[in-house]
Amino acid sequence: MKSRTCLLSLFAMVAMAVCAQETKRVFIYSPNERAGLHIAQFAGDGWQEVGQLCSSDYGTWGAEKRMFHPSVARANDGTWRLVFQVNDRSPLFAAAYSRDLVTWRPQDYPVMTTPQCLKPVIFANDDGTFDIYYQTKDGDRRWVSASNDFRQFRKDEKSLIEMEAWTRDTATIAGKLQEGCLFEISPQELSAVITHFDRMKEDARLSSERMYEDAKNALMPKQPVSATLTVTDQEKTISDKLIGIFFEDISYAADGGLYAELVQNRDFEYSAEDRREWNATTAWHSARQIEIATEHPLSPNNPHYALLWPQDTLWNEGWDGIAVEAGKKYDFSMYVLAGGQKQTFLIQLVGADGTVLASNKLKTAGSDWTQYATVLTAKKGDAKARLAIIPKGVAHVGIDMISLFPQETFMHRKNGLRKDLAETIAAMKPKFMRFPGGCMSHGQGMDNIYHWNHTVGPLQDRKPDFNIWGYHQTRGLGFFEYFQFCEDIGAEPLPVLAAGVPCQNSAANADGIGGQQGGIPMDQMPAYIQELLDMIDWANGDPATSKWAKIRADAGHPAPFNLKYIGIGNEDIIGTVFEERYEMICKAIRQKYPEIKICGTVGPFHTPSADYIEGWDFTKKHPDLQYMVDEHYYESTGWLMHHRDYYDSYDRSMPKVYLGEYAASTPAKRPNVETALAEALYLTDVERNGDVVEMTSYAPMLAKDGHHNWDPDMIYFSNTEVRPTPAYDVQRLFSVYGGDRYVSTSLDIAPALRHRVAASLVRDSKTGRRYLKLVNALPVELTLTVNGLTIPADSKTEGFSGQPEDQKIDITSGVVESGALKLPPYAFRVIAL
Ligand code: AHR
Known about the structure:
Distance between the termini: 75 Å
Shape: globular
Radius of gyration: 30 Å
Structural class: alpha+beta
Mean pLDDT: 95
Bound molecules: alpha-L-arabinofuranose
Number of helices: 12
Largest sheet: 9 strands, mixed
Strand order of the largest sheet: 43-42-45-40-39-38-13-41-44
Strand content: 25-35%
């Protein structure tokens, strides 16, 4: 064991006592397991709380994210190391690194050989390494050596270190005695920490500004306001893919949502893994107990099927009922295992009051599993119908993959999408679509990582799985269908797949390891990387030479899908486990498919979050690995209004930005005029920074009534209704009236109101059309004088206005009025020139 410069952090104080006059005493501690790491300063005659430095990022929300017994050491180069216990049942502890106490590198969770790692303590060595000691429940004391960069942790060994090593310093803060670590730091260091907290406080103050409270806001005008917009002749090239969509199977967006299948649990594969109370018969009903078999499955990936007895009507409740429309045709199909006898089934759609809405016979004759189909024509409609499968004098048969689709799907595709929802999405003219998530891409634990190859090929062979959002994925809407939809609506496909790590909020696996769970083991990474390469081959390859491309061609698309982008990772912890795997994946893709543009991730939040900072540090160190990185932030309307310069200072020589998930939110948790205007203001600045921001997508896109996992969402829907929100119209107007050239403008308005008003002028170089977007988020009318631009009197204009809390808006369109441009209070408007 190496000699230690400080056996206890108190020694650090002594070592630095020479400059005692100039140093400041700080105490680093955690007030409670939920509160994270705090810093207090010694001021005058006592300790004073300064603020929270970081928090635990380990494991699930709710049960985990706790910090016990933090221990901090200072390296001889002045940098800091933190270790803490995450719980009393996992074979790991948390480890983090900081240069300045304020920004902590995303935590690593090195796995030890013992079943738990309690009360870790850390000491810095002269040679720059660190010694970490911890205890186990049975009283063992263990020693681990950590490298200076705090990324390598040697295998733990038995240690006989004295118990005094666990004696921590104490301080009384706000009347409570706390245990922690005492340090002396320079006044400059302390002042940097305090400045950081002051900035955070000021940021929180600005971010709390709400349009809803304008009447009480003394800074807001009471009388109409005037401003001058000056248009220059300077242009720059911006992305022509700025507005796209984020599709995640969240809130029943796929099964029961966009995917037009009307039968729920069509394959009898629901299980308690999806939801505790679910099983193979969920959504099915019968007068007798439904018998489920697995002996002779239709496909090994689809092992469960139902056994139907004579006189045994089987009912399916659909997704909160089946919405049947009078006069419409529905394609019914099912697989039957009947041992060669002829069978007849009556297939019916039955209304809530028992009325038969549609009925047809299905005759079957095969022996082994065979698919049979019939068409049902609805004589009457009902929003809450059920499907009945009535055996007519049949023997005991197996049935599986029972399916009912409206014939009118989007673009009449088989296995297609719900027409009204898909058309609403298509009307946005999104330039790209990201899929299949979100958190669903990287999954709840290693076994739930989304494998694209489980979602292609014949429906019965696709591999269903549980959904991280607490329900089931049939994978009927799989990679083929996603790519087909992209092609149908003219959007570039942007598949996002896991970076070899599951969601950082995952629950513990069988070994008690939660969060990223250590990532896919290194010896399995080559196979995982191959799977990602196969996806590109499947999308773009030649069916004559590629087995993957042949699967695509067999599904009906011999021509390549012309995939250009791939996303790797979704708002992960940018820890060592992530970085190692991400780098391997990117290198392999770059080598085999240099033309594919890789999109990385910089974690779940904007600056100054740890993942964002480390993610961008990593990106800047490896600029050639990726084309762009995915940023996420769900924020208040005040934050968006006061950070409109967010991208102004981004380094243009570095990879580009994909703002892949964002939305403005208020306590109402629904898009309204206030959130829509905040997003519109922000997007005008994104357009201005369209040379560094390549793509953006509002998130989440879809939420089904009664099944929300998340709010706000862009489009709400039920089985019979589609309700786009004000957020939708902002996205649609920015997308439809987008351009690939940004024309410089300047807006002259009182400085205190600047964050509430915006103008952006873009040009589409292919058509020559110019589009002027104007936002007035003030509570009063705005009169705009425009210099340097002639707005012809017949220019088309589209937009909306309302009260901040309005969740419904009326889109007004017409031609521009003559004279000065006037925007009513709380308004967004586009003028097509
Ligand atoms: O958009 C909803 C969720 O928000 C996404 O799944 C995840 O990436 C983010 O945390």
